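Hey, can you fold this?
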Amino acid sequence: MHRSCAWVLLALSLASASAAGKETVSLCFEQQDVLPWRTEKLGGLNFALLKMVEQRLDIHFDYQSIPWKRCLAELKANAVDGAFAVSYKPDRRELGEYPGGQQIDASKRMHIDSYVVVRKKGSKVEWDGKSFRNLDGAIGFQLGYSVGDVLRAQNVEVDEGSQRADELARKLIAGRVAAAAIGGSDAHGLMRGPLGPQLEELPIPIIEKPYFLILSHGMLAARPQLAERIWRAIEEARNSAAYKKLEAAEGVRH
């Protein structure tokens, strides 16, 4: 079976699964495709992993696909029980809880991904892993993304006006930003797409980090044991042979 068909079948099974009699946990995620991790139609590795968690714990996840900043705001307001996939930033502790509490437990991550520098083809912008060179304008990144803190620490001009990776790439091609900091998975997708011939991805990542399911403060207060079981099940499912086989099929390397 072609893997895209497999994801469609997975999405259909998620959508049609009966939650009758099962404890429900509401989760939000960003309203865009971030391959191979997730799609708006509930495909990708994140949903495969969470499906395994549902089966292990006999619970039901109720998903909401919404813009990222709104997702984080709903998490902070306890309007949802959790959000994924979220990288660590100290100020995000106000929004919800990471596995491990004060000592973040990276073993309970959903996945690892990176941010890379993308430049317009022919540009002289360079990144050596420590600093930028030949930068003649702002570096763009997506609204609310954690890489903004890394860029600001470099004391470079930034542009946070884009919601989506393809929108940011078009801004880069139009010369409205000098470079773009884009999630590694998004960047690889752009390079394979119609905009790819006009772009170049630099080889050294800006940063590599784990991404988590973080749970609301309300969820932790009301159902602390379930929260811990969910995080533990994520670790177990991610390390399972079945999930590793799915990762290998998508070309994910560690």
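Oh, and this one too while you're at it.
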Amino acid sequence: MLKKLPAGCKLVPLKPIDDSRGTLTEVYRQQWVEETARVQWNLVRSNAGTLRGVHLHAKRTDFLIVVEGEMWLGLYDMRRSSVTFGQSHLLCITPEMNVAAYIPTGVAHGFYFTKPSMTLYGLSDYWTLDDDFGCDPDDPALNIEWPGDARILSERDTTAGSLAEMQAFYDKWQETQ
């Protein structure tokens, strides 16, 4: 299933500190990802069977933590200059793992939730549709076998185009930079 993450992606270990009162866990330090600070944080609740994505950002990075539940993170590297270009990855993240996932620009990603879940994620740039490209999460070219059969998708994700279309759009965007 998972050999290694796409180049530049990270699983950042979180270190909970327990005592008789409960637990404190640092969830973010700017030095962990060595880039610009997060400018926006989102708290998202997802129902069991929800699939969010697959999305791609050309300008912003994501830093996400599973607070509750279980998230299957699907990744696909769209950066032609990357040593992991065209590779797919699927991993399960739970709160008990005490990790945060860092997703750089150019890595397409989707989230599938097998049970009611809550995620917290920070963005390096403000969210905008201008930097939120999508493709069909079940496109065979993604080579991601999402767990479960139930699919609760947004209308946008239901009507998203192919991976090839998203790759062409991303390549064209890269040429203009």
